[in-house]
Amino acid sequence: MNVHCLGGGGYYATDDTHTVCFMIPELGIIIDAGSGLFRAIDLVKTDDIHLFLTHAHSDHTCGLAYLNLFYKKTNVKNIYIHASEFTLSTINNIYKPPLIGSPLKFHPVAFQNEEKVITLANGTIVRRFPVNHSIECYGYRFENGSHTLGFITDTSSDENSEYLENIVGVNFLIHECYLPSGSDEKARASGHTSSLGLLGFCKKAGISKVWLMHHNPSGNREKILSEVKKEVHGAESAIDKAFHDF
Fold it and tell me: Under 8 Å CB-to-CB from 12, ≥6 apart: which residues?
């Protein structure tokens, strides 16, 4: 089973990198709706799409502007957006006419406080957990049979992160890494993760395979990856249109 990087960048798109959006076509799961969302149209394999949003910031939601294209260009029958009440309210208030041509067509699935784990009709178990950012933000763990995937973005992770236990044992982790070592305080202040913080997080959680994403559009991607790979040899940089098994 593969997860596809449709957009691995943070903040704003660049010539070769769209903003955050990942997809597991076999399960009909999309994670975040950055500017790379349009690429999912060519990968659709299911009647239903489950879109899980981490938070409401525009680099993770701007692709919603063309969400309705899925109904026109694929055989998708239903799109479910899973998010917090705050995030759903925010996107409903922003992504509507006259900003876009027609109202978005989707089924909202608001998080319930007492329900941290849900099971989709295809048997996929999805666990959500809060992470620390400037606004309400969540990480995810996806399980389907022997396939396990963790997804964390827009937070300052390190070996002391309270949510670390949620991704222990996953086959593959997709995690943001925005700044190199030496910028740890700057990373924490901005609600992002440095290479040093990610190293500590992966070592404590026993993670050997990680895709670095939410790349800083100002650069440093290669430097950050080299710093992480020194101790997490299975670390790779998520490149747009690439895919990885898990």
Answer: 19, 59, 217
